[in-house]
Design a protein that fits this description.
Largest sheet: 2 strands, antiparallel
Mean pLDDT: 86
Number of helices: 24
Radius of gyration: 22 Å
Strand content: under 5%
Shape: globular
Strand order of the largest sheet: 1-2
Length: 511
Amino acid sequence: MGGYPILSLMLGVPALAAIACLFVPAREARWLALAATLIDLALGLVLWTGFETGGAQWQFTEYQPAFGRFAWALGIDGFALLLIMLSVFLMPICIGASWNAIEKRVPEYMSAFLLTEVLMIGTFAAQDIFLFYIFFEAGLIPMFLIIGIWGGANRIYASYKFFLYTLLGSLVMLIAMLYMTREAGTTYIPQLMAHDFAPEAQTWLWLAFFASFAVKMPMWPVHTWLPDAHVQAPTAGSVILAGVLLKLGGYGFLRFSLPMFPEASGQLASLIFGLSAVAVIYTSLVALVQADMKKLIAYSSVAHMAIVTIGLFAFNRQGIEGAMIVMLSHGLVSAALFLCVGVIYDRLHTREIAAYGGVASVMPTYAVFFLLFTMASIGLPGTSGFVGEFLSLLGSYQISTWTALLCTTGIILGAAYSLYLYRRVAYGEVKTDAVRAMPDLSRRELWLLAPIAGVVLWMGVYPESFMAPMRDDVGRLLARIEGGAPESDSRPTAGRAPSMTAPAVAHGSAH
């Protein structure tokens, strides 16, 4: 891009639109928000096509000193590129999903969503540790407002629970960041990733970051805020919460915990495996007995994100690449499932599974999309869900046979609750006249679901498109963390060969 500040532009467009939305009527606010998110999607495509696979680690870099050691420093690697693309892809869909569903305080609602987009992109692009923290924490504010103002009957309780859980964990992380910058003499994330912190300090720093990232994902047992937040949030709020905001925790592990504290990560990997295995089985069993569709999908999200953590801490290429694909796939599939719930909720105004039945006979097009996303959630070969879960479990198997076995059991339970949900909603006899009168997908709803379906199938059939941008970054990460990798409980050298030949960590200059 010849030094053009495209990342700053991607932050500036929705930020200016968010301000402008506050001064226009509802109809204009909707179109303004849609236009801004589509512009950011177009800029994201420029990032995607301009990113040089096999090139420098950090690309599209910007650096502007501010005060002290703090700087406006932006740049992306393959991990950040994929998560930014997920963000800009889902945002226009969120605006479209809110087109008719939100009727009160529309300008403020659209402004909050645009601000959320700014903060998500900023989190993934930030290369200054305190700039990252500002974006990371400020993302709480618009989502707190979206749930608290436009949510359901218990929205106040859910919004405060969401805010307090995520904020308290991050306060400990801020203390750790202050120590790190004093110790390393820099706030620049690429330099911190190369700094060797003392082994005795790494454990405490790792735990401080874990306190924040575990809540964000969320991991068991600090997951209880998520079902409440999803149930009370408007449809688009659930889409962006499950689609992108939960990925901030996984990105944090990739960007901070693994490269900055490799020895502590290896020593504490068994903790991650244990919590993740419990999460997969426990939350799958809880999902199986849910009567509310949104709550069922929320618990399934906890189980899927547990697959991410076991893949990340497998310390091998299959696990890390699989974890990233699971994050992308879950971001798409969970978003689509919440949209599917929103479609029938807009018609019948209930999320109770028992209220439906026979929907496939009155809404056949809807039933096809719902089935596709249900199968992707299960991990059907040919969909995005299969690729990531297979790689993550393969990576974890090379380190811990029992963890892989337990998490595979959770996937079987996932098939049980997903198919049970679909059977009760789509099949059987039409129970009520209200269900019989429900119209099939409108043109707007079709345009919301079709792009996600296309990407879910694309990722399942040709995952190389999504693996290629991050392949070199996975190699650099493996080279960095190899010394702290946990020992395998099944085969001494399984899965370690890729990391032996990985290139050394590269540090592109942002100046």
